[in-house]
Design a protein that fits this description.
Blueprint lengths: L13 E7 L6 E5 L2 E5 L5 E8 L3 E9 L8 E7 L4 E6 L4 E5 L12 E4 L5 E8 L5 E10 L2 E17 L2 E14 L5 E5 L2 E5 L7 E8 L2 E9 L4 E7 L2 E6 L5 E6 L5 E7 L7 E5 L2 E5 L5 E5 L7 E6 L4 E7 L3 E6 L2 E6 L1
Antiparallel strand pairs: 1-28, 2-3, 3-4, 4-5, 6-7, 7-8, 8-9, 10-11, 11-12, 12-13, 14-15, 15-16, 16-17, 18-19, 19-20, 20-21, 22-23, 23-24, 24-25, 26-27, 27-28
Amino acid sequence: MGCLKQSEPVVSEKMIYIYPTLDSAYDLALQNDTLYVANGELGIKSFKVKSNEKLLLDPLYEGSVFSQEENIINLELSEVSGILFTLDKFNYTTAIHIKSLFDDAFGGMITQSNCYNYQSKSTILLDDLSPQILTLNRKIDQFDDLNRSTSIGKTIVSNETFYLDRDCAEEIIADLNYGLTDLDFYNDRLYLSNPNKDLPSIQVYSENQGVYGLVFEDTLSVIPNTITAYEKSYVVGLGSQAGCYIALLDMNGNKVSKFTIANGFTIRHIHHGSNLLVLSTGYGGVLVYDWDSESIPSPRAMISTGYAYSALVYDNDKIIVGTKNGIEIYEI
């Protein structure tokens, strides 16, 4: 059911472009025809995607975000504000207005969220002119190295004229599993991947008068790597070559069915766009399924790429992949 296997040949795809980036292209964000790339120790890169007779990437910006000693591995883009959140591995999250990449007049529109040490992934909580994000903050007890946990911290970014500032508002949930791998916020619900200290699971929270309470927990047999939520489903990328777990939800957000696809693959990144579900699997390349986000996916393509960290859909039938060697683009 919805199965692609590693032994199967590549189907229905052709490489149409490759752009080496020297360091790995860990994560991608796309706004209209502008592509942003988390480029590790080289900072970030930005390109204009041109797709006339031949698709090309026209470089717009490359360089560090906040300092010369950083390793940018994750991006979150606030569409409304135009603020790009960049994660420096094992360090802090920086908010930078995309205008500052291209116009020196906006050079002051950058702020670093250094309220918490050892930050991990973030998700957009409120996409507004002054956006809010939730961030995984890992903690180690200074008196007991074995006492480790993760909290969820909320940060508000004030978007002033030619200036950004940040307010670390609060920690909304504390004492979660140190090995918590991912989070996503959708439809007033917070989805957490591997938050339980005792067993692999997904936990779903909702907010009531400023307090986040557990709605339900979905236990798993394998530690999940990543999660992405949609209107009537959530998709979980599993480790240990266990594939992808999908739970379908009713109109009230209750789980009504579940199934797995992509058995034999370890899923590292999930993207959905143009009714395509795109799974990045590291050395396994990229798997593409036709999917409406509320039924069972149908296999579309298996793409042999370099080590695939992340991928997204462009122009309905093109897959842009961030790999260990750079950016690869395929037509399916």
